[in-house]
Amino acid sequence: DNWYWERENYLINFGFSDYERTTCTITFPKKGEFRLNDIQVLVQPMDKYPEQIEALRDEPLKNIEFGVNQISGTVNLTRNKILCLSIPYSKGWTAKVDGQKTRLLKGNYAFIALPLEAGHHDIVFTYFTPGLKVGLGCFAISFIVVILLRRKYKRSLKGE
Questions:
Q1: Buried b / exposed e along 105-116 (16+ C-beta atoms within 10 A)
Q2: 24-72 tens-digit pLDDT
Q3: Which end of the chain, N or C, is less surrounded by CB atoms within 10 Å?
Q4: Dihedrals φ, ψ of 136, to 5°?
């Protein structure tokens, strides 16, 4: 699976249950050899869930501005956090924090996420379509070749 998805580590949500569970059965869809080096079962108590969700909203991205293929804003954090936006992750996204290029992560396996240290930060997300420069280069070369072939063809018709 790591060859296809480029992942080796997984977090699986088994859902919500109104009663205590003491066992878990994992069934694989295909026969094969699997290595399970480390399995952890983590439980998220739901009794304080609303308060935990509100705490995540305490320090949001503010002063948000949208431009052509760009989103910017500011954030003030009291502690280190990960800013996760509901923008689909793509290799075309880049981020700058306080003017410095910063590595983006995949948040919830599908969205752009940005690790940030405590403090005030100016953030700029920029999108550039992957492969666009190569595609434009191929188009330009092909266009020039077609023009040259057309000129050669016209000359051959004239008998030059």
A1: eebeeeebbbeb
A2: 787 877 787 777 777 777 777 788 888 888 887 888 899 999 999 999 9
A3: C
A4: -65, -40
DSSP string, the chain: -HHHHS-----------SS---------SS---------------STTHHHHHHHHTSS--EEEEEETTEEEEEEEESS-EEEEEEEE--TTEEEEETTEEE--EEETTTEEEEEE-SEEEEEEEEE--TTHHHHHHHHHHHHHHHHHHHHHHHHHHHT-
pLDDT of residue 120: 97
Tell me which amino acid residue 50 is: P
Distance of alpha carbon 53 from its chain centroid, rounded? 22
CA 113-117-118 angle, 5° bins: 125
The set of long-range contacts for 16-20, using a CB threshold of 8 Å and a minimum separation of 24, is: 16/46
Q: Which two tokens stand for residue 75?
A: 């954030």
| Tally of residues, the chain | 160
What does pTM read for this prediction? 0.60
User: In this structure, what are the phi and psi dihedrals at residue 97, rounded to the nearest 5 degrees?
Assistant: -115, 120
Do 93 and 127 meet the contact criterion of CB atoms below 8 Å apart?
A: yes
